[in-house]
């Protein structure tokens, strides 16, 4: 029964749904099947042959086999006991009576006692030999299936067949960004051994299909030591699918990737020893404490037992949850759970670290603390790949980043490079001097300043006005920085009452939104 339930667990994603459905299946194949066979075995119905056939089929089900086995064993016991009592009573009343004489006294018992076999394990009913044999065979088969599934024999066989006969390649992208195209040329044209020496992580034409849906299309990328690469994109862009391929959770449709020279397709076990992974959703055991969780993963990573406490306390201190180290996981806040998951990814000093939205649920102060800790890890020579929806996080951590749309890279480069190339304009904030000795509800006039901005920055848009603060969005990129600052300085020195001003490039968030408008809203990150 245990291996059968283990196999059924692969069919469900939600535990409560799986529990409900398997309870219904077990009741149907157990109690209902047992009652059905009992009814069909009634001679007067004329359905005995159908009942016998179904009985042989249902014997594969462990709890049906157990139930009928208990019934048949009790039947053998009951008939043996009753017949023995009958013969004893008969002989006590008639000293020289034979078994045939006893049957003549009470003919109705002949059917049950004439060919009585006290062997419980006989093959014919009511023996339980069939039940035991079927249970042993079924259990052995289920156990073999469990091992085959756990060692991914079926999925590997399916994958090899697909790769040999139904391989689906990436689709070439038209009008690709020049930075992305240049990266592809470097990865595709450089010899493999040279690439593996130059880069810690190499991704070459990484592609993933879910049936006919192209989730990830021919990604090419090289990441070096001490580099933090950010993968941006809205839900459905292909980020999580890319992460799952890089960790070996899902098979690659075509292409390949290498982590420190180990291929994900052919050397998966060796590759997985070199990575630390913080998943998007915390994979923690609620009833363990944070210390026990770190200790468990430290032992799995091969750290000596005597050093586990030191490692746990060091990580907890680095990520600022030392005072919560002895609390159960279910008592931790969402932010502390994320810090614990990130700490687990660093156990064993892996050279490559994957972080899937590590700051989700954290307050700003905690985020900044985590940023500093990850910066120290990055500067220590580690390679980090992270996905995030936080532009602040990417600007603080990432040395390079890419915006992913519809399974391809739309842009690639450092934060400043992307701002310089794709920012649509500038943000201008002007603070007006408040009139002296004015009441709290009286504010300075901004009409002259508005006219000044409109005259000097013709392609400008007033985005926000609050009391003495004006926020403009200037879309004209042809005006040099020096000229814009010169105009604003002249305005500040004139009678416009400008107390202060700020002129800066558009934020990374605006660059991100520029590309994500092209996203097709198809959920391509879920397997079929």
Q: How are the secondary structure elements laid out?
A:
Blueprint: H1 2-8, H2 15-40, H3 48-58, H4 62-93, H5 99-105, H6 110-113, H7 129-150, H8 153-165, H9 178-189, H10 192-198, E1 201-210, E2 213-223, E3 228-232, H11 239-247, E4 254-259, E5 262-263, H12 268-272, E6 275-278, H13 290-300, H14 308-318, H15 334-346, E7 352-356, H16 364-379, E8 383-387, H17 391-397, E9 400-405, E10 408-413, H18 415-422, E11 426-432, H19 447-456, E12 460-466, E13 469-474, H20 481-493, E14 498-505, H21 508-516
Parallel strand pairs: 3-8, 3-9, 6-7, 7-8
Antiparallel strand pairs: 1-2, 1-4, 4-5, 9-10, 11-13, 11-14, 12-13
Pfam family, one: ABC_tran
Protein name: ABC transporter domain-containing protein
GO molecular function, one term: ATP binding
Task: Describe the overall structure.
By secondary structure, the protein is an alpha/beta fold. Helix content is 48%, strand content 17%. Among the domains are: 2-150, no CATH class; 425-505, Alpha-Beta Plaits (2-Layer Sandwich), CATH 3.30.70. The protein has helices at residues 2-8, 15-40, 48-58, 62-93, 99-105, 110-113, 129-150, 153-165, 178-189, 192-198, 239-247, 268-272, 290-300, 308-318, 334-346, 364-379, 391-397, 415-422, 447-456, 481-493, 508-516; strands at 201-210, 213-223, 228-232, 254-259, 262-263, 275-278, 352-356, 383-387, 400-405, 408-413, 426-432, 460-466, 469-474, 498-505. The strands form 3 sheets. Strands 6-7-8-3-9-10 form a 6-stranded mixed beta sheet, sandwiched between helices. A 4-stranded antiparallel beta sheet has the order 2-1-4-5. β12 (460-466) and β13 form a beta hairpin. α1 crosses α7, α2 (15-40) packs antiparallel against α3 and α2 packs parallel to α4. It starts with a helix and ends in a 12-residue tail after the last helix.
């Amino acid at each position: 029964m245990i291996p059968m339930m283990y196999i059924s667990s692969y069919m469900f994603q939600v535990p409560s749904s799986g529990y409900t459905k398997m309870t219904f299946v077990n009741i149907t194949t157990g109690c209902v099947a047992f009652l059905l066979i009992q009814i069909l075995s009634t001679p007067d119905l004329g359905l005995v042959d159908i009942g016998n056939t179904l009985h042989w089929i249902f014997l594969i089900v462990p709890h049906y086999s157990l139930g009928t086995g208990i019934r048949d064993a009790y039947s053998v016991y009951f008939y043996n006991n009753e017949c023995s009592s009958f013969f004893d009573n008969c002989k006590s009343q008639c000293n020289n009576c034979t078994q045939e004489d006893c049957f003549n006294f009470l003919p109705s018992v002949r059917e049950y006692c004439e060919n009585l076999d006290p062997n419980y394990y006989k093959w014919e009913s009511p023996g339980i030999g069939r039940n035991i044999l079927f249970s042993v065979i079924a259990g052995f088969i289920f156990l073999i299936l469990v091992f085959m599934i756990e060692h991914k024999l079926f999925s590997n066989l399916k994958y090899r067949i697909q790769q040999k006969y139904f391989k689906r390649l990436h689709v070439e992208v038209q009008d690709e960004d020049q930075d992305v195209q240049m990266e592809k040329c470097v990865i595709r044209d450089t010899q493999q051994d040279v690439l593996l020496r130059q880069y810690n992580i190499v991704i070459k034409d990484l592609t993933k299909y879910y049936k006919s849906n192209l989730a990830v299309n021919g990604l090419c990328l090289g990441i070096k030591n001490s580099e933090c690469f950010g993968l941006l994109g809205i839900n459905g862009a292909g980020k999580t699918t890319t992460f799952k391929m890089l960790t070996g959770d899902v098979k690659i449709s075509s292409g390949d990737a290498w982590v420190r020279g180990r291929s994900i397709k052919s050397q998966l076990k060796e590759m997985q020893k070199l990575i630390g992974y913080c998943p998007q959703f915390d994979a923690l055991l609620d009833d363990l404490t944070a210390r026990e969780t770190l200790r468990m993963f430290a032992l799995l990573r091969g750290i000596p037992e005597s050093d586990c406490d030191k490692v746990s306390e060091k990580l907890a201190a680095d990520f600022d949850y030392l005072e919560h180290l002895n609390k159960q996981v279910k008592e931790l806040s969402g932010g502390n759970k994320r810090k614990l998951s990130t700490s687990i990814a660093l156990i064993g000093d892996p050279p490559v670290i994957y972080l899937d939205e590590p700051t989700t649920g954290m307050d700003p102060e905690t985020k900044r603390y985590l940023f500093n800790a990850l910066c120290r890890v990055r500067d220590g020579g580690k390679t980090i790949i992270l996905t995030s929806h936080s532009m602040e996080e990417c600007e603080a951590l990432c040395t390079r980043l890419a915006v992913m749309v519809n399974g391809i890279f739309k842009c690639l480069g450092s934060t400043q490079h992307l701002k310089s190339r794709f920012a649509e304009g500038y943000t201008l904030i002007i603070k007006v001097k408040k009139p002296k000795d004015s009441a709290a509800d009286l504010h300075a006039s901004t009409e002259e300043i508005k006219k000044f901005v409109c005259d000097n920055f013709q392609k400008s848009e007033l985005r926000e006005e609050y009391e003495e603060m004006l926020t403009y969005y200037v879309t004209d990129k042809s005006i040099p920085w020096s000229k814009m600052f010169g105009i604003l300085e002249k305005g500040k020195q004139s009678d416009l009452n400008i107390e202060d001003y700020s002129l800066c490039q558009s934020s990374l968030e605006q660059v991100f939104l520029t590309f994500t408008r092209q996203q097709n809203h198809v959920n391509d990150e879920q397997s079929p």
